[in-house]
Amino acid sequence: MLTSSLKYAPEDLEKLQHKLDEEREITHDVFSSVLTVKDVDDRIHPLDLLIKSFKKTVDEVVVHVVNLRIALKQKNFNTQCIKCILRMRKDISKEEKTVMLKLIED
After folding, report:
1. How far is the C-alpha of 18 from the C-alpha of 67, rounded, in Å?
2. How confident is the model over 19-34, as a mean pLDDT?
3. Residue 95 CA, distance from chain mean position
4. Structural domain spans, the chain
5. Cα 29 to Cα 40: distance, rounded to the nearest angstrom
6. Residue 86, Cα to own-chain centre: how many angstroms?
7. Are 54 and 88 in contact (CB under 8 A)?
8. Whose CA is closest to 81, among 59, 55, 49, 58?
9. What is the DSSP string of 20-73?
10. pLDDT tens digit string along 40-95?
11. How many angstroms separate the CA atoms of 56 and 51, rounded?
């Protein structure tokens, strides 16, 4: 889902957020029929963190991205993934993005 963000321009962040919210609801509904709600919530927690990284205030972005990286246990979550998230946040200056990228990488 994160790589699908490349199909969206930063100006289309609301559309991406809406799409992610829809996908989350569909995933939750489908898997709730075969798993417990707690198990489903645990499994879609990374998706929730991704959604939060797009929706929350600038000062919360690093926390959510770091938590996403931890939740994914760094599997397939690299610098390019971080850049995808930061690219969509047009409310963050280039200088701030550079600092955030460095913090998250470390």
Report:
1. 22
2. 93
3. 21
4. 3-105
5. 9
6. 10
7. yes
8. 49
9. HHHHHHHHHHHHHTTS-HHHHHHHTHHHHHHHHHHHS-HHHHHHHHHHHHHHTT
10. 999 999 999 999 999 999 989 999 999 999 988 867 788 888 999 999 999 999 99
11. 9
